[in-house]
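Holo model, adenosine-5'-diphosphate. Inputs:
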Amino acid sequence: MTDRPEPSIRKRLRVEPGASVDLSGWDPNETFGHQKSAAVTELAAGVDRLTDLQERLWANGAHAVLIVLQGIDTAGKDGTIQHVMGAFNPQGCDVVAFKVPTPDELARDFLWRAHKAVPPKGSVAIFNRSHYEDVLVVRVHGLVPAATWRRRYDQINEFEALLTETGTTILKFFLLIDRDEQKARLQARLDDPAKRWKFSTSDLAERKLWDEYMAAYEEMLERCSPSSAPWHVIPSNRKWFRNLAVADIVADAMDDLHLPYPEAEAGLDAIVVE
Ligand code: ADP
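Output:
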């Protein structure tokens, strides 16, 4: 019997189009045999790959990359940005945080602020939360009628199809932790004077809505993961694996773009700078 190669992290964590998703069946502690002791070296290699690929993306100028991060409070969206996306040259990478919409934003359609923030060709944009909040927090808190948020899955798919068809690679990451891990992280925020500022009593109210959020995440993952703009469910209880997985998946997807450097001027070989 021949050994079959292990599927890539990307393949294992991708939500296939049309799949039904039961998050209780995804293990937030999964590491696929990766060890913490090797993680620093593995992440450094992933980060080096990303640095090189972003340089190519910028030089090549024909594609854009949009990275979407979602997850319950404390799942690690900020930490992922810090550890993984630190690979990118800030020139050519924007991080956009989606907060409670401003009156100006609420006066427009829900995709307006997302569309304004999409990356131009040659660049990466990272959405820290995103237009998906409009089928998550908005659904859980009933901020619009159900008929309105239900239409949004199709509207989001159409919007993302427009982006992918016009040269944007979209990669979406749902950072999965469990309730116990969230409890520990919230408690750590309370206990550590340097982290206390991050704690808000509203986090506790949101925590009570855990099941409602999980149902909303499941429907988002089921309805909005076409192969052109897939969701990945990232086991995120272990921060080191979360970082490694996201770096690996983004780098693999950018590799697939086969980004050559632009042609240099002819005749440069003969030139010696005096
Ligand atoms: P974060 O938790 O991302 O670090 P904040 O503490 O400022 O930052 O939280 C941003 C808040 O904005 C979150 O509670 C999020 O659910 C909320 N939010 C984002 N988009 C929307 C939206 N479209 N409608 C209502 N609330 C939103």
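The chain has a mean pLDDT of 96. The pocket of adenosine-5'-diphosphate is lined by residues 73, 97-101, 129, 133-134, 137-138, 143 (CB under 6 Å).
Archived with the compound record.
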